[in-house]
Amino acid sequence: KFVSGSYGPEDALLSMLDECVEKADGREYTYKLCPFKEIVQMKNGGGQTTMGRWKGWGEQTYGSWGGKNDYSRMIFENGDHCYSAGARQTEVHVVCGPESKLVSIEEPSMCKYKVLFETPGVCE
After folding, report:
1. Going by C-beta distance under 8 Å and a sequence separation of 6 or more, which residues neighbour residue 70?
2. Which residues of the chain have pLDDT under 70?
3. With contact defined as beta carbons under 8 Å apart, do 14 and 36 qualify?
4. Could you give the CA distance from residue 63 to residue 13 in angstroms, rounded to a whole number?
5. What is the DSSP string of 11-71?
6. What is the pLDDT, as a whole number, of residue 122?
7. Burial, 40: exposed, middle or buried (Cβ in 10 Å; 0-12, 13-18, 19+)?
8. Environment class of residue 13 by beta-carbon count within 10 Å: exposed (0-12), middle (13-18) or buried (19+)?
9. CB 121, CB 16: distance < 8 Å
């Protein structure tokens, strides 16, 4: 069911609904982000780990004037279980860029990931 605003400001990212972007780390993994669905880590040669499933937009904490959604943060939760850390979670920071691509993937704490995602969909 379509809910206006679910896909970013003025539904700017609706075009990404059935698209995924991938980034190889040049070593052993390729990461695949499917906005509004999931983010996975694929091991070169087989096997994959779900780093999180779409939960929603981050929540604004700096006032009520702009609505409650923080469209610069996509939240993915309930990923595959991680030893001693529970379900994997990923926060995707969305920024303006000339093409849709994953810029960086980090794991600041065990099984909690931060991803930088660039897309023209959020450029003003």
Report:
1. 57, 58, 59, 60, 61
2. 1-5, 62-67
3. no
4. 23
5. GTTGGGTT--EEEE-SSSEEEEEETTTEEEEEETTS-EEEEEEEEEEEE--S-STT-SEEE
6. 84
7. buried
8. buried
9. yes
